[in-house]
C-alpha cells in the first residue's frame, strides 16, 4: 500500500486487513502467567474479545482502528461488518471476563503500559461514536485500566525510555485522550504531573540509541509527542526548544533517517516498519504544533512524509507485520490523532 490519501477506499482496505485477523486465534503469542495447571487455557478462553491478532495488545489497537475507520467513514464498504463485529464482541458478558483477567494476582503487570494505553485509546474512540452502546459496555474495562494507571504511576520513580511496548511516554500520551474525552480532571492532572516529573527537565536529547534492532517507537519523538499532548502550548514550545535544540539543522540526524528493514518475516525486525510509521505520526503532530513561520515546521512535516513513504508500502504481506501495522498507519495518516 503506497497511498497517502486517507480516504474511504483506503480505509476499506485497512479495515479488511483488521477484520481478517481480530478473530484469528492462531498463531498467538500469549502473554499469560500460570498460577497452576488450571490456568493453561486457550486465548479465546482467556480473552473472549481480544484473543486475535497474534497478541492481546495488537487485537486491542486493531479494534481501535476499526472504530476510528467506522466513525470517519460510517458508510464505507466495511461499515456493516464492523458494526456486526462490535455488536457481537462488545457485550457485558465478554467484557466481564476481560475485566476478571486483570483481577488475577498474576496479571498485575499484564500489558503495562502499552496494552493499557491502547485500551484507553479504544475506549476514547468509542465514546466519540454516536452509537453509545459499545462505549457503555466497554466502560467497566476502561475503568479497570484507568485505575491501573492511577495505582502505578505514583509508584514508578523512573520513566521507561525504550522504543518498545514498555515506553511510558506512549502510555501517558494515549491515556491523555481518554482523560480529555471523559472529562476526568483528576486523571488528567495525574498524567500531567507525571509527565513533568519524568520528562520536564530533559534537555538536548541526543537520540544516540535510535534505532535499536526491534524499536517500533522513537523514544525521543514519543516523549516530545507526549509533552505536546499534555502541556499547554506556551509551556510545551520552550520545553521542545530545549529538548531538541538543533532540529533546524536536521539534528539528531538519526531521527530524520527512516529505518532499514531487512526481514519482514522476523517479528522483531519487522518492528522497524512500525518505527517508520510511528515516527511519521510524531513528526507530523510536532510539526503542526509549531508556528506557521517557524523554519522547523516544514522540516518536520517533510520528515513525516519520508517516514510514511518508507513504512506504508509494508503494512500487509507477512503476518508478523500485518497483524498490527495498519493501526500505526492510521495514526500517521489521520490528522485527528
Summarize, please.
By secondary structure, this protein is mainly α. The protein has 15 helices and no strands.
What does this structure look like?
- The model has no long low-confidence stretch (mean pLDDT 97).
- The radius of gyration is 19 Å and the shape is globular.
- Helix content is 58%, strand content 0%.
- The longest helix is centred in the C-terminal third of the chain and has 23 residues, at 267-289.
- By secondary structure, it is an all-alpha fold.
- It has one domain: Glycosyltransferase.
- The chain is built from 15 helices and no strands.
Structural descriptors:
337 residues, mainly alpha, Glycosyltransferase, 15 helices, 58% helix, 0% strand
Order of helices and strands: HHHHHHHHHHHHHHH
Number of domains: 1
User: If you average the pLDDT, what whole number results?
Assistant: 97
Instruction: Give the CATH level 1 class.
Output: Mainly Alpha
**DSSP, total strands:** 0
Q: Roughly how much helix do the residues carry, as a percent range?
A: 55-70%
> What share of the residues does DSSP label as strand, in percent?
under 5%
Discrete helix count: 15
Estimated structural class: mainly alpha
Do you know the CATH topology?
A: Glycosyltransferase
Largest sheet: none
Shape: globular
User: Which second-level CATH architecture applies?
Assistant: Alpha/alpha barrel
Radius of gyration (Å): 19 Å
Question: Between the first and last Cα atoms, what is the distance in angstroms?
Answer: 21 Å
Which spans of ≥5 residues are poorly predicted at pLDDT below 50? none
Amino acid at each position: 500500500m503506497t497511498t497517502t490519501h486517507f480516504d474511504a477506499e483506503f480505509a476499506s482496505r485497512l479495515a479488511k486487513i483488521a477484520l481478517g485477523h481480530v478473530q484469528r486465534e492462531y498463531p498467538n503469542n500469549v502473554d499469560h502467567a500460570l498460577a497452576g495447571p488450571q490456568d493453561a487455557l486457550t486465548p479465546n478462553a482467556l480473552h473472549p474479545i481480544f484473543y486475535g491478532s497474534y497478541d492481546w495488545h495488537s487485537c486491542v489497537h486493531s479494534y481501535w482502528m476499526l472504530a476510528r475507520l467506522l466513525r470517519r467513514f460510517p458508510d464505507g464498504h466495511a461499515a456493516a461488518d464492523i458494526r456486526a463485529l462490535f455488536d457481537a464482541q462488545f457485550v457485558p458478558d465478554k467484557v466481564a471476563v476481560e475485566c476478571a483477567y486483570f483481577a488475577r494476582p498474576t496479571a498485575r503487570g499484564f500489558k503495562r503500559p502499552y496494552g493499557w494505553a491502547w485500551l484507553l485509546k479504544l475506549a476514547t474512540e468509542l465514546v466519540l461514536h454516536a452509537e453509545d452502546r459499545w462505549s457503555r459496555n466497554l466502560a467497566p474495562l476502561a475503568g479497570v485500566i484507568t485505575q491501573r494507571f492511577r495505582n502505578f504511576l505514583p509508584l514508578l520513580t523512573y520513566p521507561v525510555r525504550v522504543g518498545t511496548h514498555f515506553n511510558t511516554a506512549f502510555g501517558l500520551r494515549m491515556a491523555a485522550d481518554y482523560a480529555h474525552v471523559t472529562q476526568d480532571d483528576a486523571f488528567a492532572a495525574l498524567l500531567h504531573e507525571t509527565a513533568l516529573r519524568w520528562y520536564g527537565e530533559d534537555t538536548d536529547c541526543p537520540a544516540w540509541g535510535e534505532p535499536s534492532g526491534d524499536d517500533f517507537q522513537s523514544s525521543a519523538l514519543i516523549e516530545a509527542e507526549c509533552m505536546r499532548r499534555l502541556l499547554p502550548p506556551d509551556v510545551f514550545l520552550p520545553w521542545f526548544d530545549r529538548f531538541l535544540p538543533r532540529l533546524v539543522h536536521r539534528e539528531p540526524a538519526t531521527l530524520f533517517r527512516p529505518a532499514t528493514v531487512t526481514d519482514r518475516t522476523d517479528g522483531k525486525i519487522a518492528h522497524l516498519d512500525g518505527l517508520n510509521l510511528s515516527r511519521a505520526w510524531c513528526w507530523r503532530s510536532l510539526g503542526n504544533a509549531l508556528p506557521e513561520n517557524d523554519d522547523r515546521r516544514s522540516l518536520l512535516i517533510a520528515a513525516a512524509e519520508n517516514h510514511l513513504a518508507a513504512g506504508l508500502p509494508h503494512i500487509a504481506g507477512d503476518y508478523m507485520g500485518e497483524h498490527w501495522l495498519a493501526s500505526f498507519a492510521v495514526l500517521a495518516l489521520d490528522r485527528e490523532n
